[in-house]
Amino acid sequence: MALPTINPTTSEAWKKLQAHYEETKSTHLRELFSKDEERGKKFSLLWNDFYVDYSKNRITDTTLDLLLQLAQEVGLPKAIEGYFGGDLINQTEGRAVLHTALRAEKGDQIFVDGVNIVDEVFDVKAKIKSFTEAVISGEKKGYTGKAFTDVVNIGIGGSDLGPVMVAEALKFYKNHLKMHFVSNVDGDHVHEIIKDLNPETTLFVIVSKTFTTQETLSNAMTIKKWFLESASEKYIAHHFAAVSTNLEKIDEFGIASENVFPMWDWVGGRFSLWSAVGLSIAISIGYENFDALLAGAHEMDVHFKETAFEENIPVILALISVWYNNFYGAETEAIIPYTQYLSRFSAYLQQGIMESNGKSVDRAGNRVGHETGTIIWGEPGTNSQHAFFQLIHQGTKLIPTDFIGYKKSLHGDVDHHNKLMANFFAQTEALMNGKTADEVKQELESQGMSGAELEKLLPFKVFEGNKPTNTLLIDKLTPKSLGALIALYEHKIFVQGVVWNIFSFDQWGVELGKQLAKNILGDIENSEIGKHDSSTMQLLHFFKG
Ligand code: F6P
Q1: C-alpha R_g of the chain
Q2: Buried b (16+ CB within 10 A) or exposed e, 462-484
C-alpha cells in the first residue's frame, strides 16, 4: 500500500497547533517548570538503558496531545505498518524500504516479490561472519602469505558515512586491524591513505550500492593501479572485496565470488550500514559486536512498531521537532554527543536526515506549502561548548538541541567522566533557565560592581534561556546501545517524512550536480569549453590557465 497523501496543514490538529502556538509562544520554560514539580518526570521516557528527557521543550500537555492527534490525522499508524511490512513506500523508485529487515530475527518473515528476504539476509550475515573471522584471525592472507594488517573501505555517502561513523564510535571494541576510509574523489585523499600502506598486507573493501559512483570507482581504480605496481593481476581477486547490488560490474573488476557481498534495492544507501555495507565495521570490531549492533537496532524497531505513540521515543522526538520546524520556524537542529567516540555522528545524520527529508514536493507531486527537513549539525561536547555554543545561548536563532550522554565512560576514568557529564547537565539547565537581569545584577554586585558601570555591562550578561533541548542519557556506549540510537534517528526521519507528506527515501536532488560534473569534466579534459553561463565559463578558463 502507498503512503497516504495528506497535506498536514489541512488537518484539524495543524490548525489547532497554529492557534496553540500563538497562545503559548512567549511562555518561558522556567514558568512551565515552576508550575509543575513533576514536569521532569512527566515528560521523560525510560526504555531499556535509555532515559529520554524531553521536558526542557516548549511544550505542554496540550501541545503533545495536538501533535499526537496530528500523527493520527496524517495516517502514521498505517504508514508504520507499510514501512515494516515491505510496502513500496519509496514510490518514486518503486521500492520497498526495508533496512529494518536487515536486523530482523531469524525465523521472521518479510516478503518482497514473494521471497522471504529474512532468509537472504541471514545467508549474507553468515558470509560476513566467516569472511570477517578469517580476516581477523589471519587465516585469510595477502598475496605474499602474510596476514592482513590494514583494511581500506572505499565508498562514499551511505557507503562510507555509516561504516566510518560506527567504526569510530566503537573504537573501544576494536581489534588489531587498522581501518582506513577513502571517500572523496579528491586524489589527495586516496594518496594520503595509500602512501603509508603495504599492498602485501592490505585488504580493500569496495562499497557501492550501484557500483557506478564516480568517486568510488575512481578511488578503486587508483588503488588497483597502485596495487598492481607490486602484485600481479591474479591477486586482485583476493585482496579486494566488494559490496553492491551490481554483481556484473564487480565481476568486471576481477573480484573473486567469495569476496563479493550482495545488497538489495530495498535498502537505501544511507540506511545500509546494517547490511554487508557494514563489512568494515564487522572486520573492525568482530562479528559478535556487529551482530549486537543489529540487535540493538532491532530492539528499537520493536519499540517503535509496538509502543503507543505517547511513549514512543522516535515518535515523540519527531513530533517535537515538527513543532519547532513548522510552528516556531526553527531551521536547524544541533546534535551534541558528549562522547568523543561519536565525533562522526552528526555528519552521519546529516546524510540520513537531510538527504531523506530535504524535499519540497509533496507525495502528490505538488510544491509543499510548509517547511520540511531540518538542517542538522553538531560536534561532540565539550569541544562544541568552546566553539559555537555562544550562538545557541545568546544568538537570535532558536536551535533545538539533542544532548546525548552516557552514565558510564568506557575507560572508566571517573574524574574525567564526572567533569564531562557535569558540563552535559549544566548546558541543558543553562539553556533552559538562562540568567535574568536580576540574577546578573546580584552577581555583579557581589563582585563589587555598581551604578553606571553595572548597568552598562548588564545587558550583555543576560541569558534569555528558554532554549529547547532533549536529553538522551544512555547507560553505556556499546554496540547494542549504538544500534538502538541510530535506529531511533532512522525512525524519527520516517515519522517526519510521513507528517510532511514527502518521499523520504529517494534523493533525486543529488543527481543534477553529478550530471553537470560529467559535462564539465569533458570541458576540462578537452581543449574546447562548451556553453556555460559567464561565471562558470570564466572560472573554467581561469582553472585551465
Ligand atoms: O549521494 C547520493 C548517493 O546516491 C547516496 O544516497 C549514496 O549513499 C551515495 O550516493 C553512494 O552511492 P553508491 O553506494 O551507489 O556508490
Answers
A1: 25
A2: bbebbbbbbbbbbeebbbbbbbb
Question: Is the bond preceding 382 in cis, omega lying within 30 degrees of 0?
Answer: yes
Is 12 a residue of the active site?
Answer: no
Q: Is the distance from CB of 276 to CB of 259 less than 8 angstroms?
A: no
**What does the alpha-carbon distance between residue 381 and residue 479 come to, in Å, rounded to a whole number?**
21
Q: What was the pLDDT predicted at 1? A: 80
CA distance from start to end of the chain: 56
Our answer on whether the CB atom of 509 is closer than 6 Å to any ligand 1 atom is no
ipTM of the complex, rounded to two decimals: 0.98
The one-letter amino acid code at 408 reads K
Ligand 1: residue whose CA is nearest its atom 13: 208
Q: Please tell me which residue in 514, 518, 541, 544 is annotated as part of the active site.
A: 514
Task: Say what percent of the chain tops pLDDT 70.
Answer: 100
- Burial (CB < 10 A; 0-12, 13-18, 19+), residue 512, is exposed
Q: pLDDT, tens digit, for every residue of 256-304?
A: 999 999 999 999 999 999 999 999 999 999 999 999 999 999 999 999 9
Cell of 384: 562544541
| Per annotation, catalytic residue among 386, 411, 525, 531 | 386
Does the annotation count 200 as an active-site position? no
The pairing of strands 469-474 and 50-53 is antiparallel
pTM of the model: 0.98
d(CA 487, CA 483): 6
Ligand 1 in reach of 216 Cβ (< 6 A): yes
What tens digit of pLDDT does each residue of 510-543 get? 989 888 999 999 999 999 999 999 999 999 999 9
